[in-house]
Specification:
Layout (H helix, E strand, L loop, with lengths): L10 E4 L2 E10 L2 E13 L2 E11 L8 H4 L2 E6 L2 E7 L6 H14 L1 H11 L9
Antiparallel strand pairs: 1-2, 2-3, 3-4, 4-5, 5-6
Length: about 120
């Protein structure tokens, strides 16, 4: 698990939907970040979609070399990885990830609740 210097409280986007962010900075650069959309399911927050970057972690993703990707979750497991961009500066990738999740929250949540058989979707 990556330790981040800055972990603000998650931002509630709807009744059962929140956006969680965490990141670290070093000399104006962003060596690691995580931006994650979550849904309250079965008495806990479940990952829906996650962007991440950690240039120093073994097996970590480096958006400056590999490009930005989006991890999609289903049943508590990573279900798919979607390529989003070619290599991109980490700060720009962090901003893009946050904007993408905000702009596409309904689409991502609709897919998630369909997969998980959630009946009440009134919170979108």
């Amino acid at each position: 698990m990556t330790d981040y210097e800055i972990t603000p409280p998650p931002e509630r986007l709807a009744d059962r939907v929140q956006l969680r962010t965490a990141f670290s900075t070093e000399r104006g650069e962003v060596p690691r970040f995580m931006v994650q959309l979550e849904y309250w399911l079965n008495d806990g927050w479940s990952e829906v979609v996650r962007y991440d970057h950690d240039q120093d972690a073994p097996g970590g993703h480096d958006v400056t070399e590999e490009g930005l990707h989006r991890d999609v979750y289903r049943d508590g497991e990573k279900y798919d990885t979607e390529e989003v961009s070619p290599p991109i500066p980490a700060k720009k990738a962090f901003n893009y990830a946050e904007e993408d999740l905000r702009e596409n929250v309904e689409r991502f949540i609709k897919r998630f609740v369909t997969w998980h058989g959630v009946k009440d979707r009134s919170d979108l």
